[in-house]
Amino acid sequence: MNKELKSRVDATLEIIPKEGKVLEIGSYPFTVTKYLISKGYDVKGIDKNYTRQSVGVVPCDIETEKFPFKNNTFDVVLMMEVFEHLGVNPIHALKEVRRVLKPKGIFVITTPNIIRLQNIKSILLEGKQLNTLKTLTQKESLGYMGHIREYTKKELKEILTYCKFKIEKGRMYEGSQNKLTKTLTSLFPSYSSTIMLACRKGDK
């Protein structure tokens, strides 16, 4: 696990309880799953790419299938750097998250911020989004990993509210180690690299 990913995962762990059952959505390639297990979390994972089942990951296409768990099963549901890869039915996935989350459970979602500083710079200076070709060509080694759609914080909040989540905490996280980028995003957090939202079930 690289330094940026570890710091982002650790920031997530600060806002979830250590006890209880955790569902990690989109586990492949299982780096985060194994890290959570090493930290003592009771973790189940779901992913279309489930060939290495030693870490307790079960198969599920989260955009088209019902999650293979009963209602109100998990104390924590994590969807970390997954939402941007969904292009068939992201709403279905979020409704299934709500179904399997316990009434007092917490759902944490992280996703790249489309107006992150690095992306704006790349668009203005190069006429393209950051690493577009790189994410598309990762198909050969990891399966299709391209970002179908990235979001602003406001857009993500609107979608979660539509799916009957109540947002309790929000954080803009900057993963870049570049000093200038970190300074600028500390002053203007809306342009940070990652959106992190913590939610509970809202009213039906």
Task: Give the secondary structure arrangement, pairings included.
Blueprint: H1 3-13, E1 21-25, H2 31-38, E2 42-47, E3 57-59, E4 74-80, H3 90-100, E5 101-112, H4 117-126, H5 132-137, H6 139-142, H7 153-162, E6 165-173, H8 179-187, E7 194-201
Parallel strand pairs: 1-2, 1-4, 2-3, 4-5
Antiparallel strand pairs: 5-7, 6-7
What's the short version?
The chain is of the alpha/beta class and 204 residues long. The protein has eight helices and seven strands.
Descriptive account of the structure:
The chain has 204 residues and is of the alpha/beta class. It has a single domain (3-113, 148-201), classed as Vaccinia Virus protein VP39 (Rossmann fold), CATH 3.40.50. Helix content is 34%, strand content 25%. The protein is built from 8 helices and 7 strands, in the order αβαβββαβααααβαβ. The chain has helices spanning 3-13, 31-38, 90-100, 117-126, 132-137, 139-142, 153-162, 179-187, and strands spanning 21-25, 42-47, 57-59, 74-80, 101-112, 165-173, 194-201. The chain has a 7-stranded mixed β-sheet with strand order 3-2-1-4-5-7-6, sandwiched between helices.
Q: What brief labels describe this structure?
A:
single chain, 204 residues, alpha/beta, Rossmann fold, seven-stranded mixed sheet, 8 helices, 7 strands, 25% strand
